[in-house]
From TrEMBL:
One of its GO terms (molecular function) is ATP binding. The gene is pgk. PROSITE patterns: PGLYCERATE_KINASE. This is Phosphoglycerate kinase. (2R)-3-phosphoglycerate binds at residues 34, 117, 154. The keyword Endoplasmic reticulum does not apply.
Amino acid sequence: KLIVSDLDVKDKKVLIRVDFNVPIKNGVIGNDNRIVAALPTIKYVVENGGKAILFSHLGRVKKEEDKKELSLRPVAERLADLIKKPVTFVPATRGAQLEEAIDKLNDGDILLVENTRFEDLDGKKESGNDPELGKYWASLGDVYVNDAFGTAHRSHASNVGIASNMDKAAAGFLLEKEIKFLGNAVDNPKHPFVAILGGAKVSDKIGVIDHLLGKADKVIIGGGMTYTFYAAKGIKIGNSLVEKDKIELAKTIIEKAGDKLVLPTDSVVAEKFDNDVPNKVVDGDIPDGYMALDIGPKSVALFKDVLKDAKTVVWNGPMGVFEMSNYAKGTLEVGEFLGTLTDATTIVGGGDSTAAVQQLGVADKLTHISTGGGASLEYLEGKTLPGIAAVSDK
Ligand code: 3PG
């Protein structure tokens, strides 16, 4: 299993798959964490005399008009600012324009290819891993580096396809770091190992709950999915979120998990899904006409008690509707407490929880914030991710 620093990149055209799938609105990038996270690999290649040729998808390209909003041009500009070097942006994913731009590169130069999913307009070539496309992109370079952890759960032409057509493929530093933290946490954790799983839906998290119940010492549940578990236990849920067709499944999980499973004991409730209506804290049963929007203070205290001796913590999914200030406290307090666990490895994975810890300002105190949304979830489910398998096969 190679990583980028094992490769001789000098004078080489190094094809690098990154995940620059960042939020962009009207040409303005909302959060550039994924670009920042890719810098070590890109810097390594250019500082060692390689030509960095970057590929990424952005959003989901379904019709011709989507191309306007989904160009990677703003990302090229941000990357140039961050890396303090010019970045050649090529507004094409194939053809003479791209090939000539690559020919013109000097050692240490950086080029970003247009959104690889523009190829999806022609029969899902990128996201369907079209064999000709992977072969063509592979023909543009000498070596391949995959640093796109966020895309590792997808089998695309630009990750799996290129890798399978190259003699040499390596993981980038970000991919390596993600595997190190998430992989060690799940397969080789220091105990006590506590998982905190939140978010709205049990159905999104069932694979993770199942897998981590087999690995962790305790699994804490929070967020909207709590109330499907409440329903399974016969606790009243009022108008709280519930997945009726998952109540039986929740019962099975509760039985199987025994005292490993830790559920909230109180909730912050309101009559409407609205930050500006009165709210109150209730123990157990949610009264008729009310919905639960955050965990309550007793739950926070209970969770802290479970977490205080932990040596490994994996957190996926917020504890409440953290986007609304009156229901952010549970997520914030759990995040802040994790920040005080200096003896523990604390890892956050998944789009919403990452957004939560960043928005609430607790990200800096944690050991690792994954750049993966779906990818970190699938990784925590114990699945083999095609983007990782493609480079580790080499
Ligand atoms: C992500 O943001 O999870 C990845 O970049 C994958 O994007 P996708 O869900 O559109 O495939």
